[in-house]
Amino acid sequence: MTDGRTPAPVLDRIRVGSAPDSWGVWFPEDPLQLPWWRFLDEVSEAGYDWIELGPYGYLPTDPARLADETGRRGLQVSAGTVFTALHRGPDVWDATWEHVSRVAALTRAMGARHLVVIPSFWRDDKTAKVLESPDLTPEQWRHLTGGTEELGRRVREEFGLDIVVHPHADTHIDGEANVARFLDGTDSGLVSLCLDTGHYAYCGGDSVQLIETYGDRIGYLHLKQVDPQILAEVVRDGVPFGPAVARGVMCEPPHGVPALEPVLTAAQGLGVDLFAIVEQDMYPCPPDRPLPIARRTRRLLRGCGA
Length: 306
Prior knowledge:
Elements: E1 14-18, H1 36-45, E2 50-52, H2 63-71, E3 76-84, H3 93-109, E4 114-119, H4 138-159, E5 162-165, H5 176-184, E6 192-196, H6 197-202, H7 207-213, E7 218-223, E8 225-226, H8 228-237, H9 241-247, E9 250-251, H10 260-268, E10 274-278, H11 290-303
Helix pairs in contact: 3-4, 7-10
């Protein structure tokens, strides 16, 4: 943030938005979540121009209706989101492509150009049940990297979209070592990264360092922060991601880490246009909580120059 005397840098290559996640939305349907129309009303009221689709089926999936609903609120769509388990090899490809195709078609129809790809969890995000090993075998790494390249190729050929892979807590693409291994093992022309500042910090990574090291692979940003004290408790107690979120591990900026202004400044320095989508994980949360946080976060980002 500026100190009141030094003007904030002009981050003219950064396009700021928000997502259903910041309103406590994790599922297409859930009684703990607010209705989609309220999310659209409030994200616009908070001062954002761009949104993501969130979990497929939460927002209307008819392109004409969704275009009408977003358009009359002054909103545009930056990306869709898909979930994959490509490390499991060819057996999951058909089901993966069926899911990806539905989301990609709606994403393209809404004029967006990105598809955020989230890898599957190795443990259940609610019960902590271990579903598979947190470490991939060499064969599984080959399935993951090769399958992701094929996904990037087909999504671009058939839908004109670019995939951006999202490192995520409790998945096989998480902290510095696994993110570097994944990037080094994939074609930069087919696979870019969605750097989520909160998840990367959750897993011990330094977002600015990642941007400086792999700048040509950064295709998209998610902005969030983690509470270091709660994170230390989560790590100590082996808490899975879902309950960690319920504890408040993902906190409102600027009360956590990493500081967002250095991240945005480093991203601006790449010299390319990037979306920076606010995603403060808050599931579940009271329905009246998200809007005030969204307003304050938007003011903070304006103070950073975005």
